[in-house]
Amino acid sequence: MPVITPFHRPPRPPDDAADDPGTPAAPGPAPLETFRTRLAHWRAWRTRHPRAALAVRRVTTAVSAILVLGALLLPNTLVALEPNRFARIPGEAVVGAVLLLCLPRLPRLVAAALFGTALGALTVLNLLDMGFTEYLGRNFNLVLDWGLLDDAQSFVADSMGGAAATWAAVGAVVLAVLLLVLTALAAVRLGELLAAHRERAARGALMAATVWMTCAALGVQTFGVPVATTSASQAARAQAHRVADTLRDEAAFAREAKADRFGATPGDQLVPDLRGKDMIFTFIESYGRSAIEDPVMAPGVGRTLDASTAALAQAGFHARSGWLTSATYGGSSWLGHSTFLSGLWVDNQQRYRTVTAGDHLTLTKAFEKTGDWDTVGIMPGVQKAWPEADWYGLDKVYDAFDVGYRGPKFSWSTMPDQYALEAFQRLEHGRKRERPLMAEVILTSSHQPWAPVPRMVGWDEVGDGSVYEGIEAAGVKASDIITDSARSKEEYGRSIQYSLTSLTQWLERYGTDDTVLVFLGDHQPLARVSGDGASRDVPVSVVAKDPKVLDAIDDWDWTEGLEPAKDAPVWKMSAFRDRFLTAYGSVPHPTKG
């Protein structure tokens, strides 16, 4: 029987033997044998083409070194992603080289592969930190934030289309896997290179360690950054601390949520000074301080606020406005909503799950607890089951499918704000009822990517929303502005003007002597629009015809009108619930944590 080598193929069996159903098919080569065969082919190619093989080895080594060093020096924010960050000596590379030089072959291979895989995982986390910092103003939380990636895919689908979202998701997974595999292979490659030139590598490692320690001791800098760095270790340590802090926070917040200044207050002692009023709490998506103070957006938004203040005053309404610091930034609106209404600082998903699973009194539920109000929610952004309605104390919730809308979506927003408000009027606010109404209304037209933005139509023309077909088709496409900061600012400003106009015109048209409106932004827009380092402040206004409603908050020192002054008081958003309940006569009956 002939010996099978990479250069000797066995003779092909006769055709009749191959076609004979009684002849069993020869088993395929084992995976190990296949690998050995390919390895023999590679060695033979190197023998025949030594120069090309040398070039491939050098390129592979250079790419491996660039990949490992780049991963070790990669920052976790886009702002820090500058060339000077990569002109440094990572201490982890020096320690890793020394460790690999000390190990025998098998442990060295294992250690290099593990080091490379861990470095790839850290790179993935750094990239996630970049994205979360850019969009949400905070780092990625390894424990809590995986579910938000699904929301991100849904947002891309609404903004760019389902195909783009699918390809983006596939690309992200492939990139993550490639980073893990390639950094592991690169580390193994460098480890084997060190072992092959052990003496020279040891001298080089000693020199690198000496230079690193000298630069660290003297604080030597190049291009404004320290030459000696341990940024990768610091990033890994920060991730570990974040995980530990998250786990500790869960138990501490659960105790905090049980302590409630008004938790045991009887219904007849809650908001007695608002009896008989139709109470409406409205959140305007992404309505932040930047809309009022940024030089690009402020002129248009300011004119809208001034005109709306004057129009409401002519209709008999007056307003007071201040600032609240939101628990979230750039997104995760539900954290802002729950913080404002619960009086607790709900700044992550774990806290949100904890508080909504309990019985902490929300501002909206306080009205339900009195038994004197019908409570409803207008939630055009809700497109699936929403069990939180019970926690918010809402007897009935109208989601995206309950308001009879037959028009087009405006990117992420399922319907224009004007339609949502007109539906609220038709379904609830305009109906005759035995008890006054308490409503939570979420307006979504100012949700990113702020294209296309609806425009106002005659209130009698709103109908079932079909009137918006041409408006949506003629609008700016999300894909045209989503990476353009200047255009995003312009369209964001337009969307805020639209939302404010919709709300104030609705109040002017349908408000009564007993209507009280509290409206605010849930968070600032993302950094591409609000700017790096922007505050988390959002405007908040109380509007009413009855002067007693505004007299009750005189000691808040808020600004008259819909636009808060720059120096108006700034409270944490979690402070509003207790201040509001106290201002309108609620009697504290605390529960303990």
Structural descriptors:
Alkaline Phosphatase, subunit A, elongated, 593 residues, disordered N terminus, nine-stranded mixed sheet, two-stranded parallel ribbon
Q: What's the SSE blueprint?
A:
Layout: H1 15-19, H2 31-48, H3 50-73, E1 89-90, H4 91-102, H5 105-136, H6 146-160, H7 162-196, H8 198-218, E2 221-222, E3 225-226, E4 228-229, H9 231-258, E5 278-284, H10 289-293, H11 298-314, E6 318-325, H12 333-342, H13 349-356, H14 363-370, E7 374-378, H15 388-392, E8 396-398, H16 417-429, E9 437-443, H17 469-474, H18 478-481, H19 485-510, E10 515-521, H20 527-530, E11 537-544, H21 547-551, E12 559-560, E13 570-572, H22 576-583
Parallel strand pairs: 1-4, 5-9, 5-10, 6-13, 7-8, 7-9
Antiparallel strand pairs: 2-3, 6-11, 6-12, 10-11
**Might you state the CATH topology name of the largest domain?**
Alkaline Phosphatase, subunit A
Number of strands: 13
CATH H-level superfamily of the largest domain: Alkaline Phosphatase, subunit A
Beta-strand proportion:
5-15%
CATH class of the largest domain: Alpha Beta
| Biggest sheet overview | 9 strands, mixed
CATH architecture heading of the largest domain:
3-Layer(aba) Sandwich
Task: Please provide a written account of the structure.
The protein has helices spanning 15-19, 31-48, 50-73, 91-102, 105-136, 146-160, 162-196, 198-218, 231-258, 289-293, 298-314, 333-342, 349-356, 363-370, 388-392, 417-429, 469-474, 478-481, 485-510, 527-530, 547-551, 576-583, and strands at 89-90, 221-222, 225-226, 228-229, 278-284, 318-325, 374-378, 396-398, 437-443, 515-521, 537-544, 559-560, 570-572. The protein has 593 residues and is of the alpha/beta class. It folds into 2 domains: 47-243, no CATH class; 281-554, Alkaline Phosphatase, subunit A. The strands form 3 sheets. Strands 5, 6, 7, 8, 9, 10, 11, 12 and 13 form a 9-stranded mixed beta sheet that branches. It has a two-stranded parallel ribbon with strand order 1-4. It has a two-stranded antiparallel sheet with strand order 2-3. Helix 15 (388-392) links the parallel strand 7 (374-378) and strand 8. Helix 4 (91-102) runs antiparallel to helix 8 (198-218). The termini are far apart. Residues 1-23 have low confidence and may be disordered. This is CDP-alcohol phosphatidyltransferase.
